[in-house]
Amino acid sequence: MTLFIDLTLNGLSYGAIYAAVALGLVLIWRATRVINFAQGALATLTTYVAASLLDRSINSWVAFAAALVAGLVFGAVTERVFMRPLYGKPELNPVVVTIGLLILVESVAGAIWGSTDRGIAPPGGVSQSGIILGHTYLDFSAFDIFILGSVIVLMVLMLVLFRWTSLGLKMRASAFAPEVARLLGVRVGRILTVGWALATLAGALAGMLVAPLVFLSPNMMDPMLVYGFAAAVLGGLDSPVGALVGGILSGLGISYIGGYLGSSMETVGAALLLIAVLSIRPEGLFAAAKARRV
Question: In 3-state terms, what secondary structure has residue 6?
Fold first, then answer.
């Protein structure tokens, strides 16, 4: 029973991180209709920015905030430099460019900071020690609670953005019908830049949450991107709530499989979970129902 509880708590912690990556993918999809395969690499880059500040004895919360701001900047630059020339081109072009950007960013990070793994402490010295309830030790720390809370806040902010703000409405209009949005006075180019900036900020949050749990390296976020993408597809690429639920389900499934069948089965198990759900509901668990044309 203790093993099951530990695996569940571990699954919740990592599932929240997968959900943070998935939320970034959902945000960029809803805002621009592009899947950003460089999301993880950009998150790693922002984490290195925070690590550089920590090396200079900057306050850890300031470094955490600087990583999020760096995410905004990197996202905006990515849209203006790499993505804007591709608008109106075949849909495969942005996919190829983001894959190339993934390789470029990881190479640049390795050239600047090296490929040696390094550890990063949680912001503010938040404890990573398990919680003791009575005579029971739970493998769930204050930092795990911080991770889960941060992702829930991010999801709520995304819901508010897309449902109850004019910016969110403009982002959706710019993604689905850019020409119509321009006729209505929307500055589509600026809105797309904001969408990329916010999505990369979400990725930066994921990078800062995962860095204390694993060693920081140029390829740190690659596995997280795979599981985050699976979580986003599982929940539905248009749904922030689906991203959170998909991340938690993925985290729990991977944790149980790794705990009971061995870590070598985790990736296979995640793939089987994804295939099973998509075989029943290809659009994802929380995708909005589409009207049928008759």
Answer: helix
Task: Give the separation between CA 195 and CA 186, rounded to whole angstroms.
Answer: 14
285 belongs to a structural domain: no
User: Is the residue at 293 inside a domain?
Assistant: no
**0.85 surpassed by pTM:** yes
Kindly state the tokens that stand for 271: 């793939």
Please state whether 68 falls in left (phi above 0), alpha (psi between -120 and 50) or beta.
alpha
Question: Is 224 buried (19+), middle (13-18) or exposed (0-12) by CB count in 10 A?
Answer: buried
Residue closest to 271 by CA, chosen among 223, 221, 214, 202: 223
Tokens, residue 200: 């990369």
Q: Which domain holds residue 154?
A: 2-280
d(CA 116, CA 65): 24
CB 21 within 8 Å of CB 223 = no
Q: How many domains does the chain have?
A: 1
- Phi, psi (degrees; rounded to nearest 5) at 216: -75, 125
Amino acid at residue number 6: D
Tokens read off for 273: 């979970």
Q: Return per-residue pLDDT of the chain as tens, 294 residues.
A: 678 888 898 899 999 999 999 999 999 898 888 889 999 999 999 999 999 999 999 999 999 999 999 999 999 999 999 998 988 788 889 999 999 999 999 999 999 999 889 989 898 888 888 887 777 777 788 899 999 999 999 999 999 998 889 998 899 888 888 888 888 888 988 999 999 999 999 999 999 999 999 889 999 999 899 889 888 888 888 888 989 999 998 899 889 988 888 878 887 877 787 787 778 777 777 766 554 444
Q: Is residue 86 part of a domain?
A: yes
Place of tokens 């979580």: 231
CATH number of 163's domain = 1.10.3470
292, part of any domain: no
